[in-house]
Amino acid sequence: MDDAPFHPGERRAQLRAFGAPSPGGVGIRSFMPDQHRLFFGQLPFLAVGTLDETGAPAATLLTGEPGFVRSPDPRTLVIAAHADDPTGRRLVEGAPVGLLGIELPTRRRNRANGRITDADPGGITVSVDQSFGNCPQYIHVRDVAAEPVPPGRTETFDGLDAAARAQILTADTFFVATSSGGGVDHGGCDISHRGGPGGFVRIDGDVLTIPDYRGNRFFNTLGNLLLEPRAALLFVDFAAGRMLHLQGIAEVLWDDDGLPGAERAWRFRVERGWRGPAGVRTV
User: Fold this and answer.
1) What are the structural domains, with CATH classification, of the chain?
2) What three-state secondary structure class fits 35?
3) Among 46, 136, 174, 278, which is most exposed with the fewest C-beta within 10 angstroms?
4) Pairing between strand 76-79 and 123-134?
């Protein structure tokens, strides 16, 4: 790929944040190096971002025993899992996807973005367009394992209900799914990890304020939000084996560094959500 495989939103975010393009574009490849291919095969879960029926980002987890993800070649991931939830039902042939593999005991993480080329009851096959690693910052060490998920166990709601607020108030980890929108060079779906001390996400009514800490300076998430403000947040309670999915509208607060340790913040207005079993739990 070229030296700076970033779409216009990512470049705008980089310039807005620190006045120059990110020098890290050479780390974004159009194929997976062998290290990444082996890494995905070791995991008990993947975080997945895609689009719902309205074109808004949505997220879920795909889980299984290590080996449920395999890579037959440097541009392909075969994932032998499905999710019986509103997002999982959108993982169909032709759907764009962002994948995040995160190994919680070692704090390693790698990303792969692309498109589903095949889907059946046994799982999905993904053609990879972008592959890159991320630093281990803000990842909380946990030992986790996959567990069976009973079918049809999701509950939907509007706004931010009391149970959702209670989970967010103690959360130290979530995943955020975003999209560049269609027709954008080097664009597509993306899913990223966010972590901090327990309760690092602030709540005011149906609005969440999220600190944006120093990271890899690719600005994949914030760059997408400049082009498409809709997003999805996935909070996972690993101890309880439950996940909370929220969809809404995000706004980047470029000059708000009032949250401890943050370079800026972003605000997320919750419109709707669902909750259900995560298929993974601490051991």
Assistant:
1) 8-282 (2.30.110.10)
2) helix
3) 136
4) antiparallel
Q: Which residues contact 54 (CB under 8 A, 6 or more apart)?
A: none
Residues 6+ apart with CB under 8 A from 230: 55, 56, 57, 179, 247, 248, 249, 250
What's the DSSP call for residue 141? P
Residue in the block written with tokens 């049809």: 152
Distance CA 33, CA 75 (A): 9
Average pLDDT value for residue range 74-94: 97
Condensed to tens digits (0 to 9), the pLDDT of residues 121-171 reads 999 999 999 999 988 889 999 999 999 988 778 999 999 999 999 999 999
Distance of CA 201 to the CA centre of its chain: 16
Count of C-beta atoms within a 10 Å radius of residue 251: 13
Predicted structure pTM score? 0.95
| Residues constituting the chain | 283
Rounded Cα–Cα distance for residues 166 and 170 (Å) = 7
Three-class DSSP category at 273: strand
- Are β-strands 57-63 and 69-73 bridged in parallel, bridged antiparallel, or unpaired? unpaired
User: Dihedral, CA atoms, 75, 59, 226, 16, nearest 10 degrees?
Assistant: -70
